[in-house]
Amino acid sequence: MTSALRSPDPERLQVLEMEVREEAIIVRAAITTLGAYCPLCQHSSNIVHSHYVRTLADLPCSGLPVRWHIQVRRYKCLNTSCSRKIFVERLHPGAPAYARRWLRQKSLLPLERLREKQQEQLQKLRSHDNELNMAYELAQRFRNLLNQRSSAGFEQWLEEALACDIAEIRSFARGLVRDKKAVRAGLDQPWSQGQVEAQVHRLKLIKRQSYGRATFDLLRVRVLHPTLT
Ligand SMILES: [Zn+2]
What we know:
about 40% helix
């Protein structure tokens, strides 16, 4: 499976089931360890009060959004002098309380676009996880190549990406090798095929609107003389 679907916290978080739907991939998971610390008084508890499902968005996989549905437990705080009677167990630092997405989903953003707290969390994750750190560096460097619109450094990047430990990045790099001339031209040239793509899209749209109802002559007029129809 791809790293997007690997458990971000394999020691505690177990993937129970994965469902590939048309619009998204749903990963159902649960925390395997029993017991948690009250965030207010730091006392440990293993008395479960109730469960609920926490939803977190993750990096997309094969073009589909990935959503984690994680069974999370509420615990009773056993410290009688604590004002917090019930608390929710915490997930990995990559999913701070109230976060709607795994922090790694932000790992494609450059540091300057993250808030200070997010920068700290990202740095923490990168120092704990070599794979994430490598993916972040390669993604940022590729992003810079695109932003600078220059293929200088592309060969070096490609070489490192092809040799890295992350299967998804190797596969992405192999795809770029197959299309290398076009990729280099895309980086170096100021031209884009956006205009052509838009015209093709327009042609298909008009063709489908009249599917089964009009002849080629009408299609021709509608494409070439849009003001007449
Ligand atoms: Zn407490």
